[in-house]
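Posting this for the archive.
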Amino acid sequence: MAVHTGLCHFLLFVISTAGLAAAKTNIWAALSKPALRPNFDDFQPILASALPDTHYTIAQCVFLPSSVNRGSPKSAAGHPSALLTRVEEYRASGWIPSDCKGYAIDHNVKAEDFITFQVQYADCSDPWIMCYHKDSETSMDNIAIQFGRIPIQMREWVKHVVTIPDSTGWAYMDGANTIYMKPSDKMQTTMVHETAHAVDLNGGYNGSVLSGSDVWTSNYALDSHVPDPYSRTDTVEDIAQNTVVAVLNENVPGPNGGSRPSSQIGRCTSTSARNSQYATIITQARNTGRGNSMLVPGQNVACAHRMPNSEPVSLNVLARVFSWGRPDVSLSSHIKAIKAPIRRRGPTNCSLHW
C-alpha cells in the first residue's frame, strides 16, 4: 500500500498569537510556485530504512493511580516485540485521555473502543500515551515502531498519537496530537510530515513559528519550485513537506558528506536554482538541536522537554465523579513541560490519502 504525496492539510490547531504576530504574509494562502516532483511515494521505503528503530519493550499492565507504587511492568512473554518497546495498557480502570475522547466524538466512534497505551522508548524517561482504536487497520506495534523512528528532538513535540479506522487513509495534526485515519504500516513520510507541523506551529525552532517568520518568507522567495503539488497548499504544508526532504537529506548518505543537495531527493528547486527552503529547515534544526540537529536521531540525545498529556477522563460515571483510580499522567520532574496548545474540535479538510 503506497503512501501518496498528498499529506494532510492541517487545519485544527492552536498556536501562540505571539508566534504569528510578526508574520507579514498569510501562511494559509495557496502558493503559486510549480512543483518539482509529482509525489513523495519513493521516499517512504528510503526514510523507513534510513531512520533507525528506537528500542522499546512491550508489556500490558495497569496504569496505577498516583497514590500507588507502580513497580515494574509485567513481561509480555512471547510478544514479537518484547525486546523492543514497552507498551502499557492504561484503560483497565476505564480512564482515557480527554483529547482521545474528543476525537472519538469528532469521528463518531465509541471512546470505549480505544485501547490506550503507554509507549516507553529508550531515548525518553517518560512514555507517550497513544490511543489505538481496536479496529485500526494496522497493529499498535507498527504505530510504535514508525513513531519511534522519528528523531527524539522532533518526537518530543507530539502529545498523543491516535489511530482510528476509516474507509480511506488520511492524517492530520491537531494542537500537538497526530491523528491517523485508517493507519498503515507505510506511514513514515506521513508521520514525519505531521510531526513537522507540531514542531513548527508550537514553536519548536527556538520558540518561534517558522512558517510565520521573515526567515522563511525570504528564503522561500529565493527558490523557483516547491517540492511537490501538496506543498502548494500553503506555507504550513510547504514547510512540512520540506521537512520530509530535510530529514532525508540529514539521514540518507549522499555525494556531499551525508546530504544530497544535487540528488533527486534533495533537489527541491529547478536545476539552476537554490535549495533555500529545505536548507532553511536544516539550518534551523541544527541551530536549535541539543548537541546535534533536531532532524537526526541518536548521538546520546534524550528528551529534555515534552508536551504534557491531556487530563484523563473516566468512561465510568462513578469513577468520574469520585476520581476512583484516576491515573497520574504528569511528566517526570526532570522533564520540562512545553506549554500545550488547547485542542480545537471541528470538521477537518485533510487530503492525505493512501
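Strands lie at 86-89, 95-97, 114-120, 128-133, 160-164, 170-174, 177-181, 305-306, 312-314, 336-337. The radius of gyration is 20 Å.
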